């Protein structure tokens, strides 16, 4: 699942960056979300895979603090980027004639760095809920399932949810992979 997450998100980033038709605010934010998802899963999954392989659950205090810091940073970035994407769609739907004026390149460029410093309380609530529920119920299996759901499954599904039903992304992926040239020659 980790490799699918990384590959799917990298493919989406490459499709958006290589196709000039996708150089719009929505795809700019989508590529940033894909990058954040790669970083988010890469903070915990490699260590989890190592622990599974070695049957060891040890982590240094410094390693734990570093992992928690980056985990929360990229989780907050994910949620903030989703909020920015929702705002972008709101402007596109409710103010279509003013869309290019409101969502100008300067604002889009500003929203992404701001997203790096914003942490949304919704994710902190989820993380705190999993932490507290595991302390109360003493069920490591339920906690592990919940952790895998929001650290692996959601970032893995994001590129599929946001792109596979989109003709522009499908076209860009076809052009990127060279399938359009093969399809045209048949």
Automatic annotation (TrEMBL):
Species this protein is from: Ailuropoda melanoleuca (Giant panda)
Alphabetical list of InterPro entries matching this protein: GPCR_Rhodpsn, GPCR_Rhodpsn_7TM, Olfact_rcpt
Domain of life: Eukaryota
Protein name per Swiss-Prot or TrEMBL: G-protein coupled receptors family 1 profile domain-containing protein
Gene Ontology, cellular component aspect: plasma membrane
Segment forming the signal sequence: 1-18
Keywords: Cell membrane, G-protein coupled receptor, Membrane, Receptor, Signal, Transducer, Transmembrane, Transmembrane helix
Protein's UniProt keywords contain Signal: yes
UniProt GO MF annotations: G protein-coupled receptor activity; olfactory receptor activity
Family classification: Belongs to the G-protein coupled receptor 1 family.
Residue stretches making up the G-protein coupled receptors family 1 profile domain: 8-118
Membrane topology: Multi-pass membrane protein
Chain segments annotated as transmembrane: 68-87, 107-132, 144-164
Chain's role: Putative odorant or sperm cell receptor.
Localization per record: Cell membrane
Primary localisation category: membrane
PROSITE patterns: G_PROTEIN_RECEP_F1_1, G_PROTEIN_RECEP_F1_2
């Amino acid at each position: 699942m980790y490799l699918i997450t990384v590959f799917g998100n990298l493919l989406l980033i490459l499709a958006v960056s290589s196709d000039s038709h996708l150089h719009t605010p929505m795809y700019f934010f989508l590529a940033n979300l894909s990058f954040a998802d790669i970083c988010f899963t890469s903070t915990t999954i490699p260590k989890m895979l190592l622990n599974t392989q070695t049957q060891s659950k040890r982590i240094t205090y410094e390693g734990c603090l570093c992992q928690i810091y980056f985990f929360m940073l990229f989780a907050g970035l994910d949620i903030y980027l989703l909020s920015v994407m929702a705002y972008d769609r709101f402007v596109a739907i409710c103010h279509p004639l003013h869309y290019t004026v409101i969502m100008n390149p300067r604002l889009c460029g500003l929203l992404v760095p701001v997203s790096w410093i914003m942490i949304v309380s919704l994710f902190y609530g989820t993380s705190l809920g999993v932490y507290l529920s595991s302390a109360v119920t003493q069920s490591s299996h339920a906690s592990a399932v919940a952790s895998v759901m929001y650290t692996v499954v959601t970032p893995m599904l994001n590129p599929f949810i946001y792109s596979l039903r989109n003709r522009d992304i499908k076209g860009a992926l076809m052009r990127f992979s060279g399938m359009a040239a093969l399809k045209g020659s048949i």
